[in-house]
Amino acid sequence: MTASSLVTDRPRIIGIAIPTAWELWALAIGGLAGLCLWEIWANVPTPYVAGGPLEPPTLIKALFQRQIGWEPSTEIAKSLHYFTGVIGYPLGYFLLTRNGVSVGRNVDGWIWGAFTTFIALGLFAVLAGLPFMLWAWGGQLTIMSTIGHTLYGGLAAYVAEFMIARR
């Protein structure tokens, strides 16, 4: 299979390239690897720099409470965060990079990871009633979140692309 046939032989829905079952598996494994690294980053060095860990379930709970008046349990909020990290963000990465938004496989994951910080802290935090990018809180959480998300994206993409290339 050549590089050009990867683009044309791929399953498509309304002209959009979609992942095969193997690619979905590789994306999920990559997302899981990236999420594990993110969790270590969020809970080990971050408290020393920012005074506490990164807590996505708290953001998710605040978002749901503000937007629909219901606060999910911590378990549900964690599950939503894990689903997003293992399935959602890797799928978004794939759809973008396979449909024309790519600067090169070696950096796409890093860029996507950094962008996921904007999704979490620039969009979801504001919708949850928190300050944009949490800058009003001093910036330490934002910096640590950005580094963590970038590490996540880099590792998730590397593992997924490695598995896809080896197939």
Write up what this structure looks like:
- It is a single chain.
- The chain is mostly helical and 167 residues long.
- It has one domain.
- Helices cover 73% and strands 2% of the residues.
- The chain has a two-stranded antiparallel ribbon.
- Strand 1 and strand 2 form a beta hairpin.
- Helix 2 crosses helix 5, helix 4 packs across helix 5 and helix 6 crosses helix 7.
- The longest helix is centred in the last third of the chain and has 27 residues.
- The chain is globular, with a radius of gyration of 17 Å.
- Keywords: Membrane, Transmembrane, Transmembrane helix.
- This is DUF1440 domain-containing protein.
Please render the helix and strand layout as text.
Blueprint lengths: L2 H6 L3 E2 L2 E2 L3 H23 L2 H5 L5 H13 L5 H25 L6 H23 L12 H27 L1
Antiparallel strand pairs: 1-2
Helix pairs in contact: 2-5, 2-7, 4-5, 4-6, 6-7
Outline of this structure?
By secondary structure, the protein is an all-alpha fold.
Descriptive terms for the model:
167 residues; mainly alpha; two-stranded antiparallel ribbon; 2 strands; 2% strand; globular; disordered N terminus; membrane; DUF1440 domain-containing protein; transmembrane; transmembrane helix
Helix content: over 70%
Helix tally equals: 7
Main sheet record: 2 strands, antiparallel
**What count of domains describes the coordinates?**
1
Beta-strand residue percentage: under 5%
Low-confidence stretches: 1-6
- Mean pLDDT over the residues: 93
Q: Tell me, briefly, the overall form.
A: globular
SS-based structural class? mainly alpha
Beta strand count? 2
Strand order of the largest sheet: 1-2
